Amino acid sequence: MDINVNTLRGIYTGLSTAFNARFSSAATFYSTVAMTVPSTTAMNEYPRLDDMPGIREWIGDRLVHDLSASTYQIRNREFEKTIGIKRSQIEDDQIGIFAPVASQIGQDAAEFPDQLVWPLFKQGNALKCYDGQYFFDTDHPGYDEAGAPTSVSNYTAGAAPAWYLVDDTQVMKPMVWQTRKPFKLVSMQNETDANVFYKGKFEWGVDGRCNAGFGLWQLAHMSKAVLNAENYAAARAAMMNIRKRDGTIINIRPTKLLVPPSLEGAARQIINAELVNGGDSNVWAKTAEVVVIPYLG
User: Which of 102, 175, 221, 233 would disulfide-bridge 165, Cβ 3.0–4.6 Å?
Assistant: First the structure.
């Protein structure tokens, strides 16, 4: 194959098509727990939205509730992946293998949020969030029915594999996926490029700027107790009793039961079985959706 502008443009077009097709079709899990927030600077600064009370009757002047002076930041990070194609491989028409490689890079880029969100989520009982407590903790600052300060838990200790309840119906979510620069395939394919001159290699790659961080701890509960009906009920009750600053209920709905592959059977028994104990009605049937997350293994 002759190497010229048209040849190189055709290779780039083919690789881009393969990358984009796989990027748009890859199955991902991160949106189950993370809201996507665009970023236009090196970092985003987030106010503590959980400080907001409920709506009140308008009597007299408006009562202005300032967002907390306490904020937290998520700084964007840079990531890349690059492949090289030898000039001799193009000359010998041996470029067919690189379309699948470009497709794989597209899949890797699409799944990359999972690579950042889930390890952070799993370590939430050992990493602090905006209120100074671990994201999954037993003593978050919260409020009781009268609006008085109290401790609130979104963590159940134990020695069993961890499982999680999540409310994904709110505008906010437990995690944040922050994107500054989406991944895009770019090329160094001019014959005058240094990599071609010195190494005889054309290079294509992707790069992006993004990061993951913690969102609202109230919308997720981590349990390391044995996954059974009793512990499932306790975790649901803990989430659904969390209150706003004025004492009103937040209306949290634990809609997703997230489990690693090892707990899939136990989770489906609790959520999907219509009958239990030899014929009793399962009161927890269909109260949540079981989502098996490989990254939680």
Answer: 221
Q: Is 88 helix (H, G, I), strand (E, B) or coil?
A: helix
* Residue pLDDT tens, the chain, 297 long: 567 667 777 777 888 899 899 999 999 999 999 999 999 999 988 776 565 555 666 776 765 555 554 567 899 999 999 888 887 777 776 667 778 888 999 999 999 999 999 999 999 999 999 888 999 999 999 999 998 999 999 999 999 999 999 999 998 899 999 999 999 888 777 777 777 777 788 788 899 999 999 999 999 999 999 999 999 999 999 999 999 888 999 999 999 999 999 999 999 999 999 988 888 999 999 999 999 999 999
CA distance 108 to 28: 10
Q: Name the residue among 166, 262, 277, 261 with its Cα closest to residue 229.
A: 277
* Nearest residue to 226 via CA among 252, 262, 254: 262
Domain ranges within the chain, ordered by starting residue: 5-54+70-296
Buried b (16+ CB within 10 A) or exposed e, 49-59: ebeeeeeeeee
DSSP class of 158 = -
d(CA 184, CA 85): 18
Distance CA 6, CA 3 (A): 8
pTM: 0.86
CA distances from 13 to 3, 7, 9, 52, 162 (A): 15, 10, 6, 50, 45
Q: What is the CA radius of gyration of the chain?
A: 25
SS3 state at 61: coil
Q: Are 271 and 258 in contact (CB under 8 A)?
A: no
Amino acid residing at 296? L
**Residue showing tokens 């969100």:** 117
